[in-house]
Amino acid sequence: MGLALHAVPGRGYRLATPLELLDPGMIRRQMPESARALLAELEVFDRIDSTNNYLMQRLGDDMASGHACFCEWQTAGRGRRGRRWVSPFGNNIYLSIYWRFARGPADLAGLSLAAGLAVARSLEQLGVEGIGLKWPNDLLWQQRKLAGLLLEVRGEQGGESQVVVGLGLNTRLGETTVEEIDQPWVDLHTIPEGREISRNRVAASVLAALLESLHGFDKTGFDPFVENWAQYDVHQGKSVSLSMGQRRIVGIHRGVNRNGALLLETEEGIRTYHGGEISLRGVD
User: Fold this and answer.
1) Strand, helix or coil at 268?
2) Per-residue pLDDT tens digits for 235-252
3) Range of the domain at 138
4) For position 51, which CATH number holds?
């Protein structure tokens, strides 16, 4: 389960750090009324393969927009591009939300950016300073990954779309799991302002922010989010490289457009790139 235990001579064993398990009632009570009105159903599981998998498998069950699922432990958590998401028991936030849009998948460009912005602002409201966004859907603190989003979409052009938005947020990574992570990481417990924040309060805050963001995007698209995204963009105006399989392109990151596409200044001029299988890295 990824939990560290300490032996106590003459008494037995104890957890190295205390656990605060998720409480659906507490989460609901700490959400603003406007967000609770958007929450169709809230489920909290002890163990599941993946919160995204669970909701994706239920797409035919006539779920209502705002159906949310947390779990304490993911046995097969996933990140972007098929990467494994390290998911120890009871120490982080693993959340997925279902939303049905009247617009087709092509009209959902920028949704992952709007979702990332919502999470960043919610953490800022909890007092966590210095949160940045890395296109298209990572949250960073001092250039280390704090959270990531995974969006999965089903739908047809000209029809409606069904979307599952998944969030993995590091609140406290256990000692036995950090060796499995292959990139610079950080958790809220490491950040001075985040160390004492209740895990249930964090869960309530990010859930409320995502619900309100999905509701807002449903009405307006990404356009109203562009300026706010720029305030958090850690790479804007800097040299970056984009990797697409074996192909690599270097240029100056010039922000994002109204569709959430990355604007990259190259020798041939400004080019636009959408998410998917693109990986972005800063260039020193």
Assistant:
1) coil
2) 999 999 998 888 899 999
3) 5-231
4) 3.30.930.10
